[in-house]
Amino acid sequence: MEVIDVDFEIFSEVDVTKVGLHNYVTHPSTDIICMAFSQGHGVTKLWRPGRELPKFPAQYVLRAHNAPFEKAVIEFIGVPKYGMHMPQKKYDCTAARAAYMTYPRSLENVSKALRLPLLKDKEGRGAMLQVTKPRTPSKNNPHTTWFHDKERMNKVYRYCIQDVDVEHHVHEAVINLPPFEEKVFALDMEINQRGVYVDEDLVDAAISIAEQNTEELNNSMFWVTGCRVSATTKTKQIKTYLNDVCGLNLPSITKDIVRDLLEGDAIPDRARRILELRQKGSKTSVAKFYKIKAWMTLDKRIRHLFMYCGASTARWTGKGPQLHNLPRGLDIDKEKAIALIKRRKLVLLQEEYADPMAILSSCIRETFMAAPGYTLIAGDFSSIEVRVLAWLAGQQDLIDMLDAGEDPYIDMASAIYKVEKTDVDSNQRLIGKIAVLGLGYGMGWKTFQAQCGTYGVQITEKFAKLVVKTYRAKYTKIVQFWKTIEETMLTALTCGEERNGKLLVTKHERNLKFHLPSGRDLWYIDVGTGQNRWHETCLTHMTVDATTKQWVRRETYGGMLTENIVQAIARDLLAEAMLRVDEFFNIVIHVHDEAVIEIPLTDAKSAMPKFKQLMQVVPGWAKGCPIAVKLWSQKRFMKD
Fold it and tell me: What CA–CA distance (Å, rounded) separates 347 from 209?
């Protein structure tokens, strides 16, 4: 089938990052500026509206950098407005292929990381940023107008053509997705297009209450400061007032500084009240309601929520409202809270709960739900990383315990506190849980102590050291794996290949790849050695910084390598399960190690056994891995 490289430049009154891809391409103002294309690796040509469409074959493979975007443009603008025809469900995405190898996803950054002979057109990019968005309205010209003059447009045409040429260089530099991953990527596009239903009434009500709360907090701030601070967001005004009037000496009022001051008792009452108002007014979790509202489509669904190979382990990450990063929330009766929220009166929440904003934040997850007449069923791989880690490291006693259905958290707590398993209480089990989930990747006592703090548990240095020591003495095979996997990588770097149990590490030019049991490769790019802070030899590699998204060199070590490998294998187990499940049901959400289907209410009871059977299949390559699946069925998306 012929491959056609395509890149569109689009103009619109709306921002795709703020409203989501579906709302962007279906907005009345959104239209095509031009399309650059190359057929059969030929010369890149340009089409723009008003000219005759190029003659594409009846069946073709569309190749693009971020193919879901080009697909959406063709489907919602190109087909109905210009008579284009869709590819036959076959897409080759160079962004996905780059991300699969752990290179940057953006065309600009991946071309630099690959050291390509051709890079993006910087001058053209500046013109593109102007042409694709409307001018800022002014007093003299309040109407929507565009920077569509001939000079700028010509720069954008050249920019679009050069993008296709750069994309072709990326295509030649990165590997094709393996056949299994092609299926996973196709399913990813389908799930993103399907979307998940949203409780619009709950979203609108939550926004209304949040705005009432903001107004109340701002009014309180205004009066308590003698009309000198107009809002809880005015950090400069607040700091000046606290220093000049309350006698404090604050360099800033960051979240941590405010928290530390409030936990102490050395500040005046007025300063404490101001800081309390600032703390309440700075909570950002309820901002997700605004994002959900902006991304919601006319049929009350949100689409394109998941990013294929968003993490270096190939796990998915979230987009838009970020389902992968929802607040843990309070342990409350959610339906009761939702009923109160929907009455849209802040005072009613204040009468029932001490912190109304915490209640709103706790109900964000529940805004995602099944459509009318349907319900959600979720299958969750129980403690999957613990299970994969035990299987990978050969920690047989832990495998046997999990196979027997015993609780590893109680077992660990029993060892930590030196009590019988039957005598372990809920607080002790929580420490055991944090230890089992957190210490498997070489975590030290300081980090463990901080980790306990995120669960609201404060422990001493002495106790943190005891827990770490207990874990490492109990699970010696896991500890040994941290060391041997680092040695395996160093040997492969020198000798070209080395095996470690279920893993084979091979060198590929400047890169190393772990051949996982699933058959997939986990890539490490431009691997080398350096010195760590203890002046010891360590492994380094190039990777995308999770925060800045820049291409940087990072150190790695046995514990981190173990974490990456375990998460990669857990991801492959979920990906295989999703492919099996979606042959029979419609997946609408998948988060971490959980897949959620939407199914008619009348079919829910009969679907549960089939869904569980599909989820808990142990692939041949994972024989012996103690997989377990928990199911729940609810109208709303919930945390089990």
Answer: 9
Q: Which residues pair with 6 in a beta bridge?
A: 37
CA end-to-end span of the chain: 46
Query: In a 3-state reduction of DSSP, which class is residue 74?
Result: helix
CA separation, residue 381 to residues 243, 533, 577, 596 (Å) = 52, 37, 10, 12
pLDDT of 140 strictly over 80 = no
- Decide if pLDDT at 342 tops 80: yes
What confidence score (pLDDT) does residue 1 get?
80
**388, 573 contact by CB (below 8 A):** yes
Tell me if 589 sits within 8 A of 196, measured CB to CB.
Answer: yes
pLDDT in tens, 57-116: 888 899 999 999 999 999 999 999 999 988 777 899 999 999 999 999 999 999 999 999
Q: Are 253 and 238 in contact (CB under 8 A)?
A: yes
Q: Is the dihedral of CA 436, 439, 445, 450 positive or negative?
A: negative
Q: Which helix (H) or strand (E) holds 539?
A: strand 537-544
Identity of residue 440: G
Q: Which letter, b or e, does each residue of 611-638 get, where b requires 16 or more Cβ atoms within 10 Å of its Cβ?
A: beebbbeebebbeebbbebeeebbebbe
Residue type (1 letter), 173: A
306-307 and 60-64 beta bridge pairing: unpaired
Residue 414 Cα to chain centre, angstroms: 35
Predicted pLDDT at 327: 83
Residues 502/517, Cβ–Cβ less than 8 Å: yes
How far is the C-alpha of 409 from the C-alpha of 402, rounded, in Å?
11
Distance CA 452, CA 128 (A): 48
Report how far residue 595's alpha carbon sits from residue 597's, in angstroms, rounded to the nearest whole number.
Answer: 7
Q: What percent of the chain has pLDDT above 90?
A: 83
Mean pLDDT of the chain: 94
